[in-house]
Amino acid sequence: MAKIVARNASLYLYDASGVCRSVSGLTSSITLSLSSEATEVTGFGNSARERVVDGIKDWEMSMDGFYSQTACETGCLLNLLFAAGGATLFKLGPAGSTSTSPMYSASGTLTTYDINEVAEDAAKISFTLVGRSGSLTRAATFA
Q: So what's the pLDDT on residue 2?
């Protein structure tokens, strides 16, 4: 089984004007969670639960990193996305962004955006994207 080193992960967000921007350099943690409903269809008289498979699929991606106010870096980009309604596209390469790396992509909505500052520590930022429309796709190569 091929293993990857997490430090190679790459994350790109599209800004409000449609430009694809890397936020990998300030990112310290990315979590992509996928879920699928198992709708219960148990009727009266059934002695065991029955569920329909292949229910509604959903995803959520959260990121933690370091705050930067420099133009077009994470803090500025998220603030602009939030002000514009939060809609964005993203590309995530868990193994990097080379042409041999797999890529996840989707249309998402920015639902949370936190800035955390503690004395004598780096200013941190976190955000969460949830599925907006369409579905999460996985490509065999990063494009």
A: 67
